[in-house]
Amino acid sequence: KSTGEGIVEYKNKPSAMAAQRYCSERCYFLNSSLRPCIVEPYTYQDNNADGLPEKSLNKKIPEFMKLRQQGPHFADMGSFEHEYGQRWKQMHDLFKQKSDALKREMEMEEEKLEAQMEYARYEHETEQLREQLRMREQDSDRQKAEWEMKERMAVENKQRNEIQMKHKVEEMQNLIKRTDEELHRRQLENNVFMQNQQMNILDGMDDNRQGFGNMRGGNNFDAGMGLANLRNQFQRKSSR
What sections of the sequence does the record tag as coiled-coil (predicted)? Predict the structure, then answer.
């Protein structure tokens, strides 16, 4: 399908600029159609559209014959061809203006969307930072609670150990006290037992002395006094 466009090459730029100015000021037709040529500087566009070569045209159809009744020519100023050629140019200019306006509008919309996207990205990143901050605060609170619980348990264990140690010390002191009392009691019992044994021995010696004095006479008084003094000394020791 024909694209309705063509390329004309010039040997130099001034000739190309003159042709463009002349075709813009007047209406240049390629055939009998009232659609004039719109001349613009060429810019390369790779739109994969090959167009329709001249040799591929069907030159036998009535439409081709009708268009080619008249060759390339400029319309006379104020003529019917010139009037409708100008209308085509005006419509082309309007299309170009609208196309440019639409392009500018699209660029503005793209910039607006880009700004919205950047703001949305900023909000998203800010929300992520807030979430990370909340998670860190929660983790900090959790660690603080765990530390306080461990500290409280350590204090409770210390108090419990101190109480247990105090009870053990009291039990040890009581055991030592009871042991000392038991030893003292046994010592007293042993002292009393020894005193009783000694008293029995002295009583036996006294009896022997008395019998010996009766048999032999004399000095029994002195012996009795000596035994009595010895007995009194043992009694004083036991009373201590």
Answer: 92-189
